[in-house]
Design brief:
By secondary structure, the protein is mostly helical. Helices cover 44% and strands 0% of the residues. The protein has two helices and no strands. It is elongated and about 85 Å long. It starts with 16 loop residues before the first helix and ends in a 12-residue tail after the last helix.
């Protein structure tokens, strides 16, 4: 059974940084580009809102009174 640095049973401690880089394997060989998808979604959302506001500013809506006057 593996032990940690304190002698207690459990998962062994993480290897030093130099060893972790060498033993990365094929799974973590490429950096994640998930942040790029978030940035792209943010930019698209800003673009959609900009188009929406431009269209809305060119087509004003008539105000409707909330209370009927008699």
């Amino acid at each position: 059974m593996p032990t940690n640095d304190f002698g207690a049973p459990g998962a062994p401690a993480a290897p030093p940084a130099g060893e972790a880089e060498q033993d990365s394997g094929p799974v973590s060989g490429r950096k994640s580009r998930l942040w790029l998808w978030f940035v792209a979604a943010f930019v698209v959302q800003i673009g959609v809102w900009a188009v929406w506001f431009v269209i809305a500013s060119r087509h004003p809506v008539q105000e409707v009174p909330l209370v009927h006057t008699r």
